[in-house]
Specification:
Three copies of one chain form a homotrimer.
Chain A lengths: L1 E7 L1 H4 L7 H11 L3 E8 L3 H12 L4 E5 L10 H8 L2 E2 L1 H11 L13 E4 L2 E6 L3 H11 L3 H8 L18
Parallel strand pairs in A: 1-2, 1-3, 3-6
Antiparallel strand pairs in A: 4-5, 5-6
Chain lengths: 168, 168, 168
């Protein structure tokens, strides 16, 4: 399973703040069986976020965005992600938030979405290293099965026993 | 309360796989006080799903779709359902997913929605018999009150004591 | 922090039913540090709800609507609110519903949304005094931080220690 991580942050793009959440997300994915093929840093700009997403979707099974999921004026990652997704998977974003509440009640403020484009799964996670990793941890057990479904490798609404992971 | 069940499945429509989830959903509704007026099997095709939904909405208080709620390429039931709904009731789909997690962590992958069209309530449930019944079971206690509301039989945001079911 | 409360109710607008939820919401906000600058009662009419929202957004940090969040024919508050919001914060509405379930299982039927317009936060709560206050209580601890974020007073996805409230 291949993955690309995109950091969305004006300050990291401008070199004002070191990008810690992108590397944290990449490390987490590497530790969980993903072949992280690349990463990028883009500012909170709709066109640049969209270009980075489209490029990444053409090259990986999983695209993770970190940053721009909040409610500050420049936070537009979810809105842009929505424009490139063919399907939204609300249950995954709900799960990131409800599990996130175990760590901080601010988790509910993340507007990060999960969706699909072709055979690629897209996941928005918050822009702090801790928030990014905690969000990934909340859904990591679902990702292999989701990627299998996108590649038509399992039955339609009918996971094979081999793919069905036991209840957490 | 009348109901119609629509199975959305290419393989059942083509006779390749027996439709088990439609009958399971119908039986569950019959056991819970619904007069199930009919059922249909349609393929994962937008126009046919939409036609079946519109026809069913003109004839029943509750329309349940089973199937096509996942993320595989052909799964489009939620997208089509959205086009016929006048209102969406996100809390009901959230509840189906969060209760579903008691049974399988894959429940969060169901993208099934709940919405209304005129006086009809529409509910998407997953395409496995187990998933369909578990989803219905998660919300069955809400349906009579919702149908009452759609028929103007209870106050606006003010259930009468007779209709207010006690906290589960 | 300034707030305006808008009651959306045909019967209260027409004087048929006393507006209890608006004053209940105002009192709750006053008790929690908000300077409630005004209130209004509008019928369940799209244009009048929208005008009231736009006017309130130009004058307050927080706008709370009470009423019109259900599924009855006239309930259109969420749909209208969506048209004035620039961003939606689904996690906040999810939290109002999931916390609301502690009080009544009908809480999941509230379709109330949370969103932002410019620097103003908008919150839809149900149209009963109890439902309105319980919904506010579920999210009140988040509101000061959200308003800070909308005013650019905290870092981007990075609440300062002073603003970061401890986990509830």
């Amino acid at each position: 399973m291949t993955a690309i991580v995109i950091t969305v942050s004006d300050s990291s793009f401008n070199g004002v703040r070191e990008d810690l959440s992108g590397p944290a997300a990449s490390d987490y994915l590497l530790d969980h069986g993903f072949d992280v093929r690349g990463s990028a840093i883009v500012p909170d700009d709709a066109a640049q976020i969209k270009d980075a997403l489209l490029d990444a979707c053409s090259r990986a099974d999983l695209v993770v965005n970190t940053g721009g999921t909040g409610i500050a004026a420049r936070d537009i990652t979810p809105e842009v992600t929505r424009t490139v997704c063919e399907k939204l998977v609300d249950g995954v974003s709900e799960l990131m938030r409800s599990e996130g509440r175990r760590h901080t009640h601010l988790a509910v403020l993340s507007r990060g979405i999960c969706g699909t484009r072709g055979k690629t799964l897209i996941l928005n996670v918050p822009g702090s290293p801790k928030g990014a990793v905690e969000s990934l941890a909340a859904v990591i057990h679902l990702l292999p099965h989701m990627i299998d479904l996108l590649h038509g490798r399992t039955g339609h609404d009918k996971p094979s026993p081999a793919n069905a992971t036991p209840k957490k």
